[in-house]
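tokens incoming
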């Protein structure tokens, strides 16, 4: 009778340890490659929100009247020049926020009603007409400046450059539009 040696069944402890080390190195490699992609996966959405807010605010500003007089001025519908207005608009080299009116108005007669009302105004959080902070974490500012001579016009105040800048953290997006005084009366 001969004794045959037993056949090896299973794996040894050394082989198990080597398998665990090789698989661990592979997983660490995959995670380190995927980590930046996963971390930045929301970046396109944040950029799209910055663009959407800037477009919305720029449209809001550009749809306001750009007249010789403030729309609340009694001569706003009949003025032929700045001289006909009790409160002329956009005559200075800089257009700035006066503070008398607000974006959505607290009283019926106090909302922004002219392009120049937005000049120099900024928001720490973007709010909606009800006053709730619909876009907390985003800040915006509006700069309005005369741009007529830069666009080849004789009167510098005949056109305005409107720049809306929106920020969130370290990300910033600016959008510029030009408004011409093609209908100087209401």
């Amino acid at each position: 009778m001969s004794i045959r040696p037993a056949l090896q069944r299973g794996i040894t402890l050394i082989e198990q340890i080597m398998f665990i080390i090789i698989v661990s190195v592979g997983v660490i490699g995959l995670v380190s490659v995927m980590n930046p992609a996963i971390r930045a996966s929301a970046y396109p959405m944040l950029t799209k929100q910055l663009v959407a807010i800037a477009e919305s605010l720029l449209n809001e500003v550009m749809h306001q009247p750009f007249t010789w007089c403030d729309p609340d001025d009694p001569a706003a519908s009949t003025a032929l020049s700045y001289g006909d207005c009790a409160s002329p608009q956009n005559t200075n080299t800089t257009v700035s926020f006066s503070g008398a009116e607000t974006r959505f108005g607290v009283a019926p007669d106090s909302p922004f009603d002219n392009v120049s009302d937005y000049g120099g105004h900024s928001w720490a959080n973007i709010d909606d007409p009800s006053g709730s902070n619909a876009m907390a974490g985003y800040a915006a500012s509006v700069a309005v400046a005369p741009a007529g001579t830069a666009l080849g016009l004789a009167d510098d105040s005949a056109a305005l450059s409107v720049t809306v800048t929106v920020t969130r953290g370290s990300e910033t997006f600016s959008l510029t539009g030009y408004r011409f005084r093609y209908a100087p009366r209401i």
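note: The chain is about 25% helix and 15% strand.
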